[in-house]
Amino acid sequence: FCPVGAITENSQVRKVLEELEKHDKVLIVQTAPATRVALGEEFGLEPGSISTGKMVAALRRLGFDYVFDTNFAADLTIMEEGSEFLERLKNGGPFPMFTSCCPAWINMMEKLYPQFIPNVSSAKSPHQMLGAVVKTYFAKKINVDPKNIFLVSIMPCTAKKDDIIRPQHMINGVPAVDVVLTTRELAKLIKIKKIPFATLPDENYDDPLGESTGAGAIFGVTGGVMEAALRTAYELGLGKPLGKIEFESVRGLEGIKEATIDFNGKKLKVAVAHGGLNVRRLLDKIVAGEVYYDFVEIMACSGGCIGGGGQPKSLDKDVLVKRMKAIYTIDELSVIRKSHENPSIKKLYQEFLEHPLSHVAHETLHTTYMDRSKKKGKVEVLEHV
Ligand code: SF4
């Protein structure tokens, strides 16, 4: 009997409960940037409460062996995506370059705008990157066959449940991520196990895939991926520190945001769209040639991942504003706020990935897209630039 109905509602919750019960594999979990600013609402905390430490503690009490942070992988995404953008600047395109971390946007693009396949960054979404690193680098480090690792992603997102079954996301013959649970489903799991969430002590993520920066944190909100990428692309591309690291012009909940960024004399035109209608509006203008951009961030949910379909439901009309403020607070309080300064990311490149866009980085962290606009049976796999 399940007191909150989760077991009958969702077979993936049951699957995770079974794995926790059996515990015959190494059990690893990762948590998305937006989960930590919403999970507390399920336990009576105010919207916008930051419950990172309690969430980590709850996951340990559920029985996970390692609790890793998708924010770490967001930093890794920026290393790859920022470098890809710099390569395109050197090679003349194709522009605009689109972000790739939102699987709902990728589904839409493959079905409705396949002409943009060469424009979308080939970087996998951060949780897929972390999954791929766990089942290669980390598996070797702990001397465990990747088949004996069970990895759960806690996401604000329902689209990521479909993202994990893409064949191009298999790694070493196994799925990079085994199960995606939403923020709400994690809350159900914690309630089923009667873990007293609100009174748990704060605990830290595990090493080596638990260290992250403020740039990784802001992936959870619209404009965040763009801002994080600009922080790194500017410093790696120009070799000098940014004066002010906040890009205010891409922040806020306006549906479409545009900005011109001075990149050492070159004026970069960027845009950010979130929420289905805004996304369609912006894409149709690009297709019609009415606007030009160098770099575009697309997130399917209103507000970005803070407003994801798997987040707690709220009657508070300001819930997105409160979660957004919490995300920027995490960034402000972070000791390191640029992805390329994350010491654990540097170590990962030294020990395994060599350098951004290396052969091994491509094998592990990049993906391909399919034109799914054609009639069934005529799906074509397009190699990325
Ligand atoms: Fe998932 Fe929505 Fe975030 Fe896209 S914007 S990754 S669909 S939660």
TrEMBL record:
Primary subcellular site in the record, as a coarse category: membrane
A GO CC term assigned to this protein in UniProt: membrane
Cofactor(s) needed: [4Fe-4S] cluster; [2Fe-2S] cluster
Keyword Iron: yes
Subcellular location: Membrane
Keywords, comma-separated and alphabetical: 2Fe-2S, 4Fe-4S, Iron, Iron-sulfur, Membrane, Metal-binding, NAD, Repeat, Translocase
GO molecular-function term, one example from the UniProt record: ferredoxin hydrogenase activity
Protein family membership: Belongs to the complex I 75 kDa subunit family.
Name recorded for this polypeptide: Hydrogenase, Fe-only
Species of origin: Pseudothermotoga thermarum DSM 5069
Lineage of producing organism: Bacteria, Thermotogati, Thermotogota, Thermotogae, Thermotogales
Parent-record interval covered: 199 to 583 of 583
